[in-house]
């Protein structure tokens, strides 16, 4: 259960945001090894072997994503997704604030692996205050010949550009992000085309989450097999930063090897969040920000892996590993309404089921909160949430259903207590 | 004459050069951020027309972009925009009560501006500081682990600053006009 700081290395090495400190601790050795001793295919091979998956939440295999880029493309882009906007998520901010060179080095390695010459780092606009160190790190990397023309004397050249959004959760969806970066409305497009074939400026583009790229330098330095061995299975390899917030004694980011702990360990373990505030009783966990289905106390003993929360009897996801913890005083209708309000606010408006569905879900939750609802309103809420499923271009619509569906399923008593009639029947179970 | 160009001069060209030839539309977000600094803190019609002129795009396009993102303000704002998160994770740590306290103290409705035009309060969705709630951003600068006393101290500092009319660069100026 010991902490392994592969990503949060700034906690072990003071001032690692400075280039000389980063280099004195092995920084940019992976890049040097890659450009001098490895072919782009070798770099891709190591990342494939590592089993690394997208850490933004979707969990798509990173090496596989890279391999979709056509080999003969004249221009390829790497885009870093630093539009970290999921409720309860604050890991990419810490990585770029405290250990920016590791992300920059990861992005340069990704560029080398897919033949890109330009990296755009798309930050959410609200993170400008967190970007000072990264901006300085980019300047220092250019001055040291780690970015720009002929990196480390090789014939590989790469630019790195920080780009700032302006407040839109939807821009964390990769096609919406690319539209935004191209100066269009940040709305998703219907795939295909997939960005790896036709992305930024219609060129092949790899969009990777910030944390995902921070994993790449240690993978290249130590080998894909080393990384894979940190986790318990083919699917759950390596390490992950877990963001813990809400009713816990020590909220914050924690780095763990996948499979080395359970969700209960993360919430109650002395090395982690240290238990519930005021020693209250635990009630519910949102394991992936507002997006993943709720978990109750009986579900906490599952492993912290991709597979763990996906067990049929739990029916949730690891996602971005943003744990929002709620104690016994929390009303789950209130929590569902808060989470649903977020999705209503952030729905880009392109797909009718999401735009209208999030509006109606919030309205119904408000009616239930206000004590003006009957069983029929809960049924309608369940029906609206169920029917958004599979009918939107991107995952925002899918995510938006989860607070309602999972709270009705796991905490029906919180709903019953607010209904106008006393002889309510058993609440329905979600159709899916 | 473009006021944006007048203030930022060749910085504008440096920003445009971050994107491939012919793809300068990509600079719409950074330019809109800077235009708000130049045009009194919000996306006025003049600000949007200025950005459109530099990019060679229709002003209606810039208008639609400005309306889509939350950080471009569609009406006048105070000198200090206080963005207070009361999303779920923050609300579990007292952010709803904090927001209510702040609006009462400044006698400003949520999404409104104080009578002296110093403060605008915007309650916002997650700003990525959930472990340090209650939190706010003042002109995009993070203020974390807040309570009523810290809020009072911040407001006192800001009022004193405003009196001296200190022209310290905003975060967006520092970051966006500092091109490598």
Distance between the termini of chain A: 36 Å
What is the H-and-E element order of chain A? Answer: HHHHEHHEHEHEHHHEEHEEEHHHHH
Helix content of chain A: 25-40%
- Structural Rg of chain B: 17 Å
Q: Mind telling me the C-alpha Rg of chain A?
A: 22 Å
Count all strands of chain A and give the number. Answer: 9
Q: Low-confidence parts of chain A, pLDDT < 50 over ≥5 residues? A: none
Outline the biggest β-sheet of chain B. Answer: 5 strands, mixed
Q: What oligomeric state do these chains adopt?
A: heterodimer
Helix- and strand-based class of chain B?
A: alpha+beta
Number of domains of chain A: 3
Low-confidence stretches of chain B: none
> Span between N and C termini of chain B?
26 Å
Basic shape of chain B: elongated
Query: What is the CATH first-level class name of the largest domain in chain A?
Result: Alpha Beta
Major sheet strand order of chain A? 6-5-9-7-8
The largest beta-sheet of chain B arranges its strands as 2-3-1-4-5
Q: Name the shape of chain A in a single word.
A: globular
How would you portray this structure in words?
The complex is a heterodimer of chains A (432) and B (180). Chain A folds into three domains: 9-228, Rossmann fold (3-Layer(aba) Sandwich), CATH 3.40.50; 239-327, Ubiquitin-like (UB roll), CATH 3.10.20; 332-426, de novo design (two linked rop proteins), CATH 1.20.1440.230. Chain A contains 17 helices and nine strands. Chain A has helices at residues 19-24, 29-37, 40-50, 62-67, 91-98, 100-114, 132-143, 174-181, 210-214, 216-222, 224-229, 263-268, 332-346, 352-369, 375-388, 395-410, 412-416; strands at residues 77-82, 118-123, 159-164, 205-209, 239-246, 252-257, 282-290, 295-296, 322-327. In chain A, a hairpin with a 5-residue loop joins strand 5 (239-246) and strand 6 (252-257). The longest helix of chain A is centred in the last third of the chain and has 18 residues, at 352-369. The radius of gyration of chain A is 22 Å and the shape is globular. Chain B is of the alpha+beta class and 180 residues long. Chain B folds into two domains: 3-68, Arc Repressor Mutant, subunit A (Orthogonal Bundle), CATH 1.10.10; 80-164, 3-Layer(aba) Sandwich (Glutaredoxin), CATH 3.40.30.10. A five-stranded mixed β-sheet of chain B has the order 2-3-1-4-5, covered by helices on one side. In chain B, a hairpin with a 5-residue loop joins strand 2 (112-113) and strand 3. Chain B starts with a helix and ends with a helix. Chains A and B meet through helix 7, strand 3, strand 5, strand 9 and helix 13 of A and helix 3, helix 5, helix 6 and helix 9 of B.
């Amino acid at each position: 259960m010991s902490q392994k700081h592969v990503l949060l290395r700034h906690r072990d090495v003071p001032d690692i945001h400075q280039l000389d400190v980063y280099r004195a601790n092995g920084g940019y050795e992976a890049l040097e090894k890659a450009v001098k001793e490895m072919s782009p295919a070798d770099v891709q091979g190591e990342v494939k072997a590592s089993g690394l998956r997208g850490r933004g939440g979707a969990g798509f295999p990173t090496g596989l994503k890279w391999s979709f880029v056509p080999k003969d493309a004249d221009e390829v882009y790497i885009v870093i997704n630093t539009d970290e906007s999921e409720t309860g998520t604050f890991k990419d901010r810490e990585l770029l604030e405290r250990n920016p060179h590791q992300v920059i080095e990861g992005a340069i390695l990704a560029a080398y692996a897919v033949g890109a010459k330009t990296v755009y780092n798309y930050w959410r606009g609200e993170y400008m205050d967190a970007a000072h160190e990264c901006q300085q790190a980019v300047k220092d990397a250019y001055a040291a010949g780690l970015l720009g023309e002929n990196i480390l004397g090789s014939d590989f050249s790469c630019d790195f550009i920080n780009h700032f959004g302006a407040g839109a959760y939807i821009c964390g969806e990769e096609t919406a992000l690319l539209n935004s970066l191209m100066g269009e409305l940040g709305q998703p497009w219907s795939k295909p085309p997939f960005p790896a074939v036709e992305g930024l400026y219609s060129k092949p583009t790899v969009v990777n989450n910030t944390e995902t790229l921070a994993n790449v330098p240690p993978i290249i330095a130590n080998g894909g097999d080393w990384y894979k061995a940190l986790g318990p299975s083919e699917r759950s390899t390596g390490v992950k930063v877990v963001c813990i917030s809400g009713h816990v004694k020590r909220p914050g980011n924690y780095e763990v090897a996948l499979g080395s702990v359970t969700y209960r360990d993360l919430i109650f373990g002395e090395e982690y969040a240290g238990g519930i505030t005021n020693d209250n009783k635990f009630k519910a966990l949102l394991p992936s920000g507002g997006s993943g289905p709720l978990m109750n106390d009986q579900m906490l003993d599952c492993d912290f892996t991709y597979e763990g929360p996906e067990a049929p009897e739990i029916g949730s996801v690891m996602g971005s590993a943003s744990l929002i913890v709620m104690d016994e005083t929390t009303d789950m209708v209130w929590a569902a309404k808060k989470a649903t309000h977020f999705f209503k606010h952030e729905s880009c408006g392109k797909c009718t089921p999401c735009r209208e569905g999030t509006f109606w879900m919030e309205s119904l939750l408000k009616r239930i909160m206000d004590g003006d609802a009957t069983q029929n309103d809960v049924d309608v809420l369940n029906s609206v949430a169920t029917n958004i499923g599979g009918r939107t271009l991107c995952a925002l619509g899918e995510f938006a259903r989860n607070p309602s569906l999972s709270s009705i399923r796991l905490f029906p008593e919180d709903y019953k207590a607010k209904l106008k009639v006393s002889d309510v029947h058993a609440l329905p179970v979600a159709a899916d | 004459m473009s006021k944006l160009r007048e203030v930022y001069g060749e910085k504008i060209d440096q920003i445009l050069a971050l994107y491939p030839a012919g793809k300068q539309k990509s600079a719409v977000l950074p330019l809109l951020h800077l235009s708000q600094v130049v045009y009194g803190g919000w996306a006025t019609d003049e600000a949007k027309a200025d950005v459109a002129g530099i990019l060679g795009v229709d002003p209606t396009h810039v208008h639609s972009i400005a309306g889509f993102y939350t950080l471009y303000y569609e009406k006048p704002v105070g000198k200090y925009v206080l963005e207070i998160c009361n999303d779920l994770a923050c609300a579990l740590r007292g952010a709803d009560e904090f927001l209510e306290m702040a609006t009462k103290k400044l006698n400003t409705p949520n999404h409104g501006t104080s009578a002296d035009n110093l403060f605008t309060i915007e309650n916002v969705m997650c700003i990525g500081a959930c472990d340090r709630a209650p939190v706010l951003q003042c002109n995009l600068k993070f203020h974390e682990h807040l309570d009523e006393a810290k809020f009072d101290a911040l407001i006192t500092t800001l009022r004193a600053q405003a009196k001296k009319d200190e022209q310290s660069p905003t975060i967006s100026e520092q970051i966006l006009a500092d091109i490598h």
